[in-house]
């Protein structure tokens, strides 16, 4: 029987732009004080339930810092991969919903109805994001068979990976929620990937 492989797929802690509901994308925004506290709490919880063999992360600082806090408690170094970055939102980065309604009303209407076909102006589509993120995720999973690994990404990055695992069409990506510092656990066994937990934040109580 093959050995069990476990991937902890994690969203980074909160940033100020998360709080202000601004599009972040490729923009390199740091964790807020609350985000740092969330990452510490998450790292403490992970150290109790798992001995990790490796920690991977997007190269953007909000994800990488979250990963570094996790890795430090496990005596590991973070391996950064730009393919795990958030969706490149191009001209929309830094904008909140109100400003996008003013500048790109037609795009938002299409994003609401059929998001899979939308290409962000000056950015990329969910399909392009899924292609690069899944390539990285698949390589990591294959490289660490029989081990427990943490992968720290972003809201949409994690969501499209989970859509791929579930064979869920990208038009329905909103059926999956990813809160700040959310923990997802995917276990690989003889029947392939099984999602053990999804968007778990119980360890953040009080933050």
Quick recap:
With 207 residues, this protein is α/β, with parallel strands linked by helices. The protein has seven helices and six strands; from the N terminus they run E-H-H-E-H-E-H-H-H-E-H-E-E. The chain has a six-stranded mixed β-sheet, with helices on both faces.
Task: Describe it.
With 207 residues, this protein is an alpha/beta fold. The protein has a single domain, classed as Phosphoglycerate mutase-like (Rossmann fold, 3-Layer(aba) Sandwich), CATH 3.40.50.1240. It is built from 7 helices and 6 strands, in the order E-H-H-E-H-E-H-H-H-E-H-E-E. The protein has helices at 16-19, 33-49, 61-74, 97-103, 105-113, 126-143, 155-166, and strands spanning 5-11, 54-57, 78-80, 148-153, 183-189, 192-200. The protein has a 6-stranded mixed β-sheet with strand order 3-2-4-1-5-6, sandwiched between helices. Helix 3 (61-74) links the parallel strand 2 (54-57) and strand 3. Helix 2 runs parallel beside helix 3 and helix 6 packs across helix 7. The protein is globular, with a radius of gyration of 17 Å. The relative contact order is 0.22. The mean pLDDT is 96.
């Amino acid at each position: 029987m093959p050995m069990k492989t476990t991937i902890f797929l994690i969203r980074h802690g909160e940033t100020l732009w998360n709080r202000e509901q601004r599009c972040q994308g490729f923009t390199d925004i740091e964790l807020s004080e609350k985000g740092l506290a969330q990452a510490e709490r998450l790292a403490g919880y992970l150290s109790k339930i798992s001995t990790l063999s490796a920690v991977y992360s997007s190269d953007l600082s909000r994800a990488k810092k979250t990963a570094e806090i996790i890795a430090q408690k496990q005596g590991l170094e973070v391996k950064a991969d730009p393919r795990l970055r958030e969706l490149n939102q191009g001209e929309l980065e830094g904008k909140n919903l109100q400003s996008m309604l003013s500048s790109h009303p037609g795009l938002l209407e299409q994003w609401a109805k059929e998001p899979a076909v939308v290409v962000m102006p000056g950015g990329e589509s969910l399909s392009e994001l899924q292609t690069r993120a899944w390539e990285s995720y698949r390589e990591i999973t294959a490289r660490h068979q029989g081990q427990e690994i943490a992968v720290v990404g972003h809201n949409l990055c994690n969501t499209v990976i989970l859509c791929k695992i579930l064979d869920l069409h990208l038009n329905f990506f909103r059926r999956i929620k990813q809160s700040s510092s959310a923990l997802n656990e995917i276990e690989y066994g003889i029947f392939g990937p099984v999602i053990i937990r999804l968007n778990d934040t119980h360890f953040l109580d009080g933050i």
